[in-house]
Amino acid sequence: MEVITLDYGSGGKKTSALIEEMIVPMLDNDALRALGDGAVLSGAEKLAFSTDSFVVSPYFFPGGNIGKLSVCGTVNDVAMCGAEPKYLSLAFIIEEGFPMEDLKKIVSSVAETAKNAGVSIVTGDTKVVEKGKADGIYINTAGIGFMRHNGLSPDTIKPGDTVIISGTAGDHGAAVMLARNTDLVQGELLSDCAPLNRLASALYGLGPDLRVLRDPTRGGVATTLCEFTEGRKFSIELREKDIPVSEGVAAACDILGLDPLYCANEGKLLAVVAPESAEKALEALRSLPEGQNAAVIGTVTENHPGKLVMRTAFGGSRILTKLAGDQLPRIC
Amino acid sequence: MEVITLDYGSGGKKTSALIEEMIVPMLDNDALRALGDGAVLSGAEKLAFSTDSFVVSPYFFPGGNIGKLSVCGTVNDVAMCGAEPKYLSLAFIIEEGFPMEDLKKIVSSVAETAKNAGVSIVTGDTKVVEKGKADGIYINTAGIGFMRHNGLSPDTIKPGDTVIISGTAGDHGAAVMLARNTDLVQGELLSDCAPLNRLASALYGLGPDLRVLRDPTRGGVATTLCEFTEGRKFSIELREKDIPVSEGVAAACDILGLDPLYCANEGKLLAVVAPESAEKALEALRSLPEGQNAAVIGTVTENHPGKLVMRTAFGGSRILTKLAGDQLPRIC
After folding, report:
1. Which of these, A105, A170, A329, B197, has the minimum number of CB atoms within 10 Å of its CB?
2. Which residues have CB under 8 Å from A314's CB, separation 6+?
3. What is the 3-state secondary structure (H, E, C) of A239-256?
4. CATH architecture of the region A154-320
5. Do A39 and B49 touch (CB under 8 A)?
6. Interface pTM, i.e. ipTM
7. Which CATH number fits domain B6-147: 3.30.1330.10, 3.90.180.10, 3.40.50.300, 3.30.530.20?
8. Tens of pLDDT, residues B152-179
């Protein structure tokens, strides 16, 4: 079996061969083919810029792999800023002994996902570390987008606003955790890993009625909404019965002792919109396949300033806090 | 001793505390304080974009540390594209058990180096992996610059051009290798790790007489110059006696069995310039403290197309090739 050896990371002949013969052709574009220290690109007056490292374990999981995730994660962060994602960087840290075949699959997923999302991988880096100094492969991506909607921020949220999710909650976290527990039957539970830029773009037309966008990754829906309310003069009230959770995720969370609201999502967005635009926002999301399960899940109120409150299915209510410890290590 | 535990990477309360109470205040700037999914920035018509991951071992070395290196590496790649570096992203992968005190020193170096280089760290990410799944700390930076000099490329090199280095060769590689061999006396050998954007900027004024800029990192001066000549119709002839190498580096390379021309540099640039501008380029470099040892080291000729040729101190000549294997693993 062909594996990555240390000299693939030396900056010498083997590094060049790996990059020029395998990685660059798969990610085909002019900027990357120039093979400079960086890419020279056309710009815009206002930019969004974001980065994430991906250390997910296992690096192949139902519904995706670390390559797909690395593109989606940064595309989504850029889109949540109100920008159209344009360019991505791609940096590998690979453990010595990593199967070349797995690397090919991962790069192929990167290429396919970038194409789907309409972004170009324009610059990159490859490092190799000794056996035992990583866990297979880690990937960093950084992304540049051109601003399309200015002023998205939790600061613009007002009492009366509507909280919308673009689909079912907790899919990525539940799928990865189930994949780690290989003794459990895995059924058809898939990560929701997907680019969100088309959904985000469909909402930019709401103008200032769109207050904020966020993709609830690590820490899940609950942690993201807590970040919106924390230190602010409003609260968010969620209605448990309105939050879409797939049967598979609900069952997996039961088995694993997890709460879907704290499970990571990698293909869902939360939007807070003015109440008069809620219907329009829902329609815009549902008109796209990746938003067909979009739902209104809560309302902004003045009842418990700074808090996230859950109205339970049984009519009670409880305060939700940010994820404290590490419920799901290495989920992304 | 306070150490990084897995829950610092959870995306929950501890992650927020680490980022908001330690990292963000040290790197103080408005974009980062907004703590969004990404930064919203003013742009430009043409951009340079580059990324590198840093896995250097040891992460503290004479003359720098992984934090300083992470800023310099990307600032330099952007500057070599002909751009003024403006914004950096900063992403940590930290091994569980990493000393908090070391992280503080590293972030502090990042902040100081970014300030010296005139760039802002505007977005970031922190992941924590289990003990044994990394080697202390890995850092990725990506950088955006605004283009100031278009068309830098080895394709513009012409026979008769002059090859200049901004200072002594091999300092970073030799210093790090010596630091790994702690049984050897380390003397005063320091990495040259430094931002190169002021030197690069001093050369942009040469216009088209400046053909190409490159920082000879992994693989050293020889590998970088081979990348210039490879597959092209000219050769580069280096004059061994003209290549500045410090006494300390020469001695260390003797002991370690290394060649300074293949040792990484992290604060030196190679410039190819038209012969009529060579004197002006040297003056511009030498007018800055980081360029005081700048020297003409070679000439572009048509004698051995595609080759890098060394005229030795003894009057002979030999062909230099790209670094083949991994002479210096994890040097950056």
Report:
1. A105
2. none
3. EHHHCCCCHHHHHHHHHH
4. Alpha-Beta Complex (3.90)
5. yes
6. 0.94
7. 3.30.1330.10
8. 999 999 999 999 999 999 999 999 988 8
